[in-house]
Amino acid sequence: MIINNYMIYSKIIRPLLFKIDPETIHTLVAGGGELVARVPILSKLLRSYFRVSPANLSVHAFGVDLPHPIGLSAGFDKDAKYVHFTEQFGFAFEEIGSITGKPYKGNEKPRLRRLLKNQSLVVNYGLKGEGADRVYKRMSGLRTQFPFGISMAKTNSPTCVGQTAIEDYAYVYKTFRNLGVYDTLNLSCPNTKDGTPFSDPQALEELLKKIVMLRKELNVQKKLFIKIGPDIQGEHLDTILRLIDLYKVDGIIISNLFKDLSRAHTFLPYPEEHSLSWKGGISGMAVQQASLQLIKEVYKKTNGKLFIIGCGGIYSAEDAYAKIRAGASLLQLITGFIYGGPSTIRTIVLGLSALLKRDGFATLDEVRGKDVL
């Protein structure tokens, strides 16, 4: 049944959908799916098929019990418009955002391109979003028990740099202090205007000082994560891990889009499909191996003590299994869902459960980091 669903989607539905501009079809499909998911009888039907929860994949994270480790990464639901859609199609949790202090209309179009042969996307939204106040108002009215995190970033403006950018993050943090089960500081969006990125160690330390101070003052109980790109290596990575330990950050998300496009080309099966003149970072297949290696490196450097969410290039149960064996506790994806269709999460979850059974593991804890330590 699952194979048939995938074949129908990949051979018939996806080619039709992909004839439409990618940004337009995202809004139409996700928006339509959200409306359907809000109808009780239809919601029940969707949940009965797409939501599966094998006993050997249950996870306790963020203070809640999750049916399996796979969530929706930030970038799909920037303004908290599709939470019911996400829940009905099988994800265990989602990350909303990235949310910035002020609204931003986004970079000039085209800002989303498909690399069909590579099953990847070129993303150049530039932190498009409605801003913290409007998103908070929408989320305050949500009636859902579905676990979600808040991804935070600085407003994309030439004037939002230095201390102003830190205060922008801080405003988002304060605004959402009572919503969600975890927070993420997005350090690595590759599509913003001037200023030192917060993946820079000195800038990151100043940001963490501010957020940790607020965390204590406001008694925020949520877990705190940072999200890095696949370009972080060597001493740069060591410094970030030192700051994570120093400021008691709870975990790390590995990884965001590739912004080093020349290096990304070395990971693409069909590099000729992408032009280096195109603006934006690359998701999907380009990130798959780079994020996997970075997860292994972080897991090894921290002796398996840092909570890792693996993200980037997950299309199958085998891809998910590889990231867990590399050291990830949870997983996130977007691109794999877009290319794989509505049965993607169900297929991956059932396949991942079968892989654990095949290899004689009773729980995810027994598998985590097996390929590293």
From TrEMBL:
Signal peptide: none annotated. It is found in: Membrane. Keywords: Flavoprotein, FMN, Membrane, Oxidoreductase, Pyrimidine biosynthesis. It comes from Candidatus Kerfeldbacteria bacterium CG08_land_8_20_14_0_20_42_7. PROSITE patterns: DHODEHASE_2. Belongs to the dihydroorotate dehydrogenase family. Type 2 subfamily. Catalyzes the conversion of dihydroorotate to orotate with quinone as electron acceptor. The keyword Methyltransferase does not apply. Its cofactor is FMN. GO terms for molecular function: dihydroorotate dehydrogenase (quinone) activity. Its EC number is 1.3.5.2. One of its GO terms (cellular component) is cytoplasm. One of its GO terms (biological process) is 'de novo' pyrimidine nucleobase biosynthetic process. It catalyses: (S)-dihydroorotate + a quinone = orotate + a quinol. PANTHER family: DIHYDROOROTATE DEHYDROGENASE (QUINONE), MITOCHONDRIAL, DIHYDROOROTATE DEHYDROGENASE (QUINONE), MITOCHONDRIAL-RELATED. It holds the Pfam family DHO_dh. This is Dihydroorotate dehydrogenase (quinone). Pathway: Pyrimidine metabolism; UMP biosynthesis via de novo pathway; orotate from (S)-dihydroorotate (quinone route): step 1/1. The keyword Oxidoreductase applies. Residues 57-356 form the Dihydroorotate dehydrogenase catalytic domain.
